[in-house]
Amino acid sequence: MIMIKRFKKEFPEGFLWGGATSANQIEGAFNLGGKGLSTSDMAAYKDPYAGKSVNNFTFNVSSIELEEYFNNPEKYLFPKRWGIDFYHHYKEDIAMFAEMGFKVFRLSISWARIFPTGLEEEANEEGLEFYDKVFDECKKYGIEPLVTMSHYEMPITLTQKYNGWISRELITLFDKYARTILERYKNKVKYWITFNEMNMNLNSLYTGAGVLEDKVENVEQAAYQASHHQFLASALAVKACHEIIPQAKIGCMINRIESYGKTCKPKDQLQALKADQINTFYPDVQVRGEYPNYMMRYFEENNIKIITKDGDNELLKEGKVDFVAFSYYMSHVTEDRPDAYKLAGQLDSPIKNPYLELTQWDWPIDPIGLRISLNKMYDRYGIPLFLVENGLGAKDKLTEDRKIHDDYRIDYTRKHIIEMKEAIKDGVELMGYTTWGCIDLISCGTSQMSKRYGFIYVDQDDKGNGTLNRIPKDSFFWYKKVISSNGEDLGE
Q1: Does residue 283 form part of some domain?
Q2: Three-class SS state of 452
Q3: Domain residue limits at 27
């Protein structure tokens, strides 16, 4: 007898509703608790309005800038060093997450808080104890932690000594770090992600891999070599997780960008396919355990030579992930043009979609693109998906009566949840949804505080001034209803 699965009409029981953050954007306390300096601690604030676009990204740091920041730190602002002081406010923040009804809270562990330089033989106990307290606080409210091992930061010493992930030395160092936190929190964390948005190595080598681009001859070659080392480190972490916490689930993560051809011209559609392949290359390796043929052709035609060692292929096959996590903020439009492949790896496309609205930061809003992506990725991999970042960056206004009326954020989130539900009806197995910046935090790309994503307002400006008071926005109470109804009450 052939059993046919029941048609799903709603979010499944046990769906993991929650929110997402990263250590480098919320924790602060960069010089407390034995923490060492990380790569994100060295990303100085730059006026995002100095150029023609508000997207004046502070992703990259050159070797000259790094030396300047070390020699004259008093001349610059480093917002990710102070974050929103989650280090001292974690109890208050987690209590507010619980009030919203969170089932899961995505956060990351700072590698430099556990191994300050990355080179130590013994872990920093004070750093380990901090996360013990955070996870205990989550447990108090029945919130499952979803922990990212490496989220856009690593000990800056590893950049200085090895130029980051361009060196194979980091595989062993990361394995030690991963095993340390897996052993320590094996009774407290059952959902893990190895690397945040690994495909962003193609956008910023410094942010994603701690590599100083002016210290390498070929940036694209360096990006794929660094990625290869991260693939191996991720595979080791997956193997360690399955060994240390057999009941746990561990996944990979990418920044998912759905690509459309600019016209129905076949070459535009072919380029959309190629852009999609560049985007999904990373989970292709981590889910299937091998490099896809289309990338082997790309490497050959672009003279990219990945340096490997005996045993690498076997390790990739042994360290396949349990689920695919991804962020989704926007879609891209592409066309047949000489630089199309390079554009496929960029965060923002220069070709605008006339059918989509833009955010205040010129990001296209495309909820239907999310449904398309969910279907395509589930068809491609056949394993559970987890949407772990999705949100709207906007300039919120605090009224005289200390309220934030963010209907625009509610509308954005509602439309994306509707398309998630449609994808579930299509048959997609979706584990959960953690909105990005469930609490206001320092922007990854621009180091701004004024680019706000959260359901909770944090009283702080771009220069770190403010009371740090936490204030629920209108979206806070709306999301609370969404969670309590398991996605059925989305309001009007």
Answers
A1: yes
A2: strand
A3: 16-484
- Whether 258 is a known active-site residue: answer no
Query: Catalytic: which of 137, 153, 335, 389?
Result: 389
Would you say 458 and 450 are in contact if contact means Cβ atoms under 8 Å apart? no
Dihedral (CA of 118, 120, 121, 127) sign: negative
Cα separation, 151 vs 193, whole angstroms? 9
| Residues in CB range of 241: below 8 A, 6 or more apart | 178, 182, 192, 248, 250
**d(Cα 481, Cα 489) in Å, to the nearest integer?**
6
Position 203 in a domain: yes
Asked if residue 7 belongs to a domain, the reply is no
270-317 pLDDT tens trace:
999 999 999 999 999 999 999 999 999 999 999 999 999 999 999 999
Of 394, 137, 354, 362, residue with least CA distance to 260: 354
Round to whole Å and give the CA distance between 207 and 201: 8
pTM listed for this prediction: 0.96
Segment 193-242, tens digit of pLDDT: 999 999 999 989 999 999 999 999 999 999 999 999 999 999 999 999 99
Instruction: Tally the domains of the chain.
Output: 1
Q: How far is Cα 157 from Cα 159, in angstroms, rounded to an integer?
A: 5
Tell me if 94 sits within 8 A of 87, measured CB to CB: no
Structural domain includes residue 89: yes
Dist. CA 275–CA 261, nearest whole Å: 10
If phi over 0 gives left and psi between -120 and 50 gives alpha, with beta otherwise, what is residue 227? Answer: alpha
Residue 245 belongs to domain with CATH number: 3.20.20.80
Q: Give the total residue count for the chain.
A: 492
Cα–Cα distance between 254 and 169 in angstroms, integer?
24
Give CA angle at 18 (145, 347), nearest 5°: 95
